Amino acid sequence: MFIDQDQCTGCKQCLVFCPVQAIRMVDKKAVVTADLCVECNNCFRSACCKPGAILPEAHLPWPRSLRNLFSDVCSEFERTGVSGRGTEEMKSNDVTGRFSHGEVGIGIDIGRPGLGASMRDIDLFTRRLANAEVFFSDDNPVTFLLEDRTTGAIQKEVLDERVLSAVIEIKVPVEKLSGVLSLLKGLATETRTVFSVGLISRLKEDGSIPALRIAEEEGFPVQPSAKLNVGLGRRGS
Questions:
Q1: Strand, coil or helix: what is 107?
Q2: Strands across the sheet with 103-111, in order?
Q3: What's the CA gap between 199 and 228, in Å, rounded?
Q4: Per-residue exposure over 3-15, b if at least 16 CB sit within 10 Å of its own CB, e if not
Q5: Which residues, 6+ apart, have CB-to-CB distance to 225 below 8 Å?
Q6: How confident is the prediction along the chain (237 residues), in pLDDT tens digits per residue?
Q7: What's the pTM?
Q8: What angle do CA 48, 53, 58 make, to 5 degrees?
């Protein structure tokens, strides 16, 4: 983002709209700290700047443009045609059929407004998960940044970029879920940001959810607002 110093009146209205505190006042003018800015365009879209001093950069070179891809909800990942940080909704499994019986989908949402995440944070997760021999979702933007899925290493040229958040999407057999959740608990003590974990699993014929029991055994309490797909919109219906 760019703030035209000739147009800025120093009203400070834009400060509260930056989710990563990348805008500061210098000599009574608002200035963007480039290293902190994640190119989310939130300050621009908020229309808080009456003189119009806030403008998106005309062209974001690679790998700087990666910040916008993961941070601006209106940006579109050209490889998949999907906006946002992940693939199409994982919870629409009854329609897409991405996860079969005996499999568990895991979405790891790293970062948040006010804190953000560096690609080095995400690289820590992908490397550890690769060691656990998980399957990385094909159409996920993080997966496209991997140099090698077997090692989980993210491309070196993007490691110094910061984003508002990113979602790692993986799939494991249900019998591997306990080990992966234990691994994630360990990462909680090492990462420099925050993360949440979402599980996607099919119900068994008796209505039980093996993934739910395993998560509770590993100390992951399931939130009461968990999303359940009731099967509306099934293929062929």
A1: strand
A2: 135-136, 165-173, 103-111, 195-201
A3: 11
A4: beeeebeeeeebe
A5: none
A6: 999 999 999 999 999 999 999 999 999 999 999 999 999 999 999 989 999 999 998 899 999 999 999 999 888 877 767 666 666 666 666 667 778 889 999 999 999 888 899 999 999 999 999 999 999 998 889 999 999 999 999 999 999 999 999 999 999 999 999 999 999 999 999 998 999 998 888 888 898 888 988 999 998 877 655 555 554 444 444
A7: 0.88
A8: 110
